[in-house]
Design brief:
InterPro entries: AAA+_ATPase, ABC_transporter-like_ATP-bd, ABC_transporter-like_CS, MacB-like_ATP-bd, P-loop_NTPase. Belongs to the ABC transporter superfamily. There is one protein chain. This protein has eight helices and ten strands. By secondary structure, the protein is α/β, with parallel strands linked by helices. The strands form two sheets. Strands 6-7-8-3-9-10 form a six-stranded mixed β-sheet, sandwiched between helices. A four-stranded antiparallel β-sheet has the order 2-1-4-5, covered by helices on one side. It binds adenosine-5'-diphosphate and magnesium ion. The site of magnesium ion (MG) has 2 residues, from α1.
Length: about 250
Amino acid sequence: MTPPKKVVETNKLSRVFKNGEIEVRALSDVDMLINQGDFVAIMGASGSGKSTLLHIIGCLDRPTSGEYKLDDVVVNNLDKNQLADIRNQKIGFIFQSYNLLSRTTALENVELPLIYNRSGQFRNSKELAKKALDQVGLSDRIYHKTNELSGGEQQRVAIARALVNNPTLILADEPTGNLDSRSSFEIADLFVQLNNKGKTIVMITHEAEIAQFAKRMIFLRDGRILSDKPIEKRNTREQAFRELEKPVGFE
Ligand code: ADP
Ligand code: MG
């Protein structure tokens, strides 16, 4: 059997922030391996280093020390422009706050990163954007302005935008943080569907029911990995919805 392809490999990754005299050690000696097809949830208290780790994995930031290999290439030494190129090619980022242009259509929001891609390789940007919106179940909303869409729909647009250049790795920082429970489960289920089609996904969340849609859970505490375990009983959309329907206080 061929070994699984490594997507993310870190070796003693550390990140220290300096604010004048004060040093904050956000990450300490993080060793992590994520293979193609993984779906990893990252949990941990506020301030435990989750976003810092995701920013480094997503080439938005660099470690202070340690090594990071993305797709078997060492990237921790690259300069800002080189990191931006890698990010445009290989990373799809999703944020809690969607970060969409509000008076612009769903289609244009998804198409924009292709239009501004420095490689100039995406001539059929409209078609690709339509395909990505179809993948997230929004074919009937492509000409809606994003401020006319629900929160869950807006996050779907953001996911389509992250998918549109067919990245190696999808990274999501609290993607359901602004959503009600039902929309959150729909978004978690969408990640499961994308993962079933082969996408490698790393998702930060502080909600256990959302984390349990993933295949594996990494727990951070004070910038270190406290545990890294497969999820034995994964949550599903149906199960999560049934839990919501149970009367409160009824066992
Ligand atoms: P989490 O996402 O788990 O809430 P973060 O990765 O955002 O945690 O932050 C980890 C630690 O690093 C915190 O103590 C935070 O205050 C600090 N930190 C994060 N970003 C910066 C920054 N740009 N400058 C200074 N300190 C930062
Ligand atoms: Mg955070």
